[in-house]
Design brief:
The protein has 78 residues and is an alpha+beta fold. The chain has one domain. The protein has 1 helix and 4 strands. It has one helix at 6-17, and strands at 23-27, 39-45, 48-55, 58-68. Strands 1-2-3-4 form a 4-stranded antiparallel beta sheet, with helices on one face. Strand 3 (48-55) and strand 4 form a beta hairpin. The longest helix is centred in the first third of the chain and has 12 residues, at 6-17. The mean pLDDT is 85.
């Protein structure tokens, strides 16, 4: 994660410290369920995934939703 922006590293660390080890936190890219460049996070909780995004410049603008987890261990590709 050394090439990730500091905000991405901070969110990933906070989620893991709160007891959510199965997380993906990175900047959104083309094809993701978030605007490109937004901070995208996904947390696997059993058979479900909590996925969300926000623009780190304007954190009140974003979205969050819950989906069924697929067969992959990750909710979104890393």
């Amino acid at each position: 994660m050394s090439r990730c922006p500091p905000e991405t590293q901070r969110v990933a660390l906070e989620l893991r410290m709160e007891g959510y080890p199965d997380t993906t936190v990175r900047l959104a890219r083309a094809g993701d369920p978030a605007p490109r460049g937004n901070l995208l996070y996904a947390v696997r909780l059993g058979g479900r995934c909590v996925i969300g995004h926000f623009n780190h410049a304007t954190p009140r603008q974003g979205a969050q939703w819950i989906t069924e987890a697929g067969p992959s261990e990750l909710c979104v590709p890393g």
